[in-house]
Amino acid sequence: MKYVFIIFLSFNYVSNHSVLHDVFYFEGSFPQAQHVTWKSTNFKTVLSWEPKPSADYSYTVEFSVVGRDRQRNHHCVRSSATVCDLSSSLTDLNANYTADILSEPPLGVTSDLIEFPYTTSPRFCPYKDTDIGRPDFKLEVSEDKKKTTLYVTDPLTALFKDGRQLSIRDVFSEQLHYRVTYRRNKSTGKVSPTNIIEMSGLDRGESYCFNVQAFIPSRSFKKQLGELSHTQCSEVEDPSISDVYSVGVIAVAIFLILLLIAIIIAVTVICCRCRRNARTTGKEGLPLRDV
C-alpha cells in the first residue's frame, strides 16, 4: 500500500529574489507488522510483533474488547518498539481482546492520510490464556517420618487491587488446584485444592522428590497446567534397626547371639577342664624321685 506525503512549498520575496524553503516529500510503503503474538504469564501480558521499524515509520497499538471501541496505551503510540505491555489495560479478565498494530509516520511527522496499514492480533482472554508460572513450596517431614507436608506459595500476578498485588489464588479462587508429582523408583502423583498438601503412606527411610504445578480444571486442556516447580527432595537419615527389621526378626537375632555366646563359654569351660585333667594325670604317672 503506497502513500504520498504532502509537498510543502513556500516562497519569500526579498529584493526580487524567490527563496524555496520547507520542502518535504516522501513516497513509499510502510511494512505491515507480522508475527503478532500475545505473551502472558501470571497476567503480565505483552503484545509483540516484527519487524523492527526503520527511521521512516513507527508503530501504534490500538486494542479493544471484541465488538467495542478501540483504545490506545500512551506508551505504545508512534513508537519504534516492537512490544507493548498491556497488563494494566486489559481490566476485564474474562473478556476477549484483539489489537491492531498500525504502521504510521514517526513521531512529530504530520500526514493528511486517514488510514494506515495495520495487522490484527489473534483473540486473547487473560483469564483463559495467561500462562501460570512456577510456584514455590516448602517441604517438611514429620518426626516419625510417616508424613511429608508441602506448603505451596501462590505465585503473584501483575495485577493490583487497592494497592495490593494479587496472587493467582485471588484471581482463580476455588478453581485453583495444585498437582504434586513425586517419585522414588516410579512416578505417581496427587491433586490438592489447597496450599497445604499432606503426603502419607510413603515408605519410611526413603527419599522422595517432589514437583508442584498449578492446575485449573475449568480451562482448556492445553492451559490447565502451569509451569512445573523446581524439584525438592526429602533427606534420608540412616534408618534404625527397628525401621529395617520387625520385632520378631530382632528377637530371633538376639536369641541366636546369646546362644552363640553360651556355646563359646561352654566350649571354653570344657577346654579348660580338659587341660586341667590332663595335667593332673600326667603328674600321677611320673616315677618318684630319689631322695
What would you note in describing this structure?
There is one protein chain. The chain is an alpha+beta fold and 291 residues long. Among the domains are: 34-120, Immunoglobulins (Immunoglobulin-like); 136-233, Immunoglobulins (Immunoglobulin-like, Sandwich). It has 4 helices and 20 strands. It has helices spanning 126-129, 168-172, 241-244, 247-284, and strands spanning 2-4, 10-14, 17-21, 27-29, 34-41, 44-50, 58-65, 71-72, 83-85, 97-104, 118-120, 136-141, 147-153, 156-161, 164-167, 177-183, 187-192, 196-200, 209-215, 232-233. The strands form 7 sheets. A 4-stranded antiparallel beta sheet has the order 8-7-10-11, with no helix packed on it. Strands 17-16-19-20 form a 4-stranded antiparallel beta sheet, with no helix packed on it. Strand 12 (136-141) and strand 13 (147-153) form a beta hairpin. The chain starts with a strand and ends in a 7-residue tail after the last helix. It comes from Seriola lalandi dorsalis.
Q: Note poorly predicted spans.
A: 1-28
Count of helical regions: 4
Proper CATH architecture of the domain at 136-233 = Sandwich
The third-level CATH topology of the domain at 136-233 is Immunoglobulin-like
Under CATH, the homologous superfamily of the domain at 136-233 reads Immunoglobulins
Q: Whole-Å distance between the termini?
A: 147 Å
Number-wise, the strands total 20
Mean pLDDT: 82
Apparent shape:
rod-shaped
The first-level CATH class name of the domain at 136-233: Mainly Beta
The SSE order reads EEEEEEEEEEEHEEEEHEEEEEHH
Side-by-side strand order of the widest sheet = 8-7-10-11
Portion in strands? 35-45%
Q: Kindly state the percentage of residues in helix.
A: 10-25%
Largest sheet: 4 strands, antiparallel
Question: From the alpha-carbon coordinates, what is the Rg to the nearest angstrom?
Answer: 42 Å
Give the helix/strand class: alpha+beta
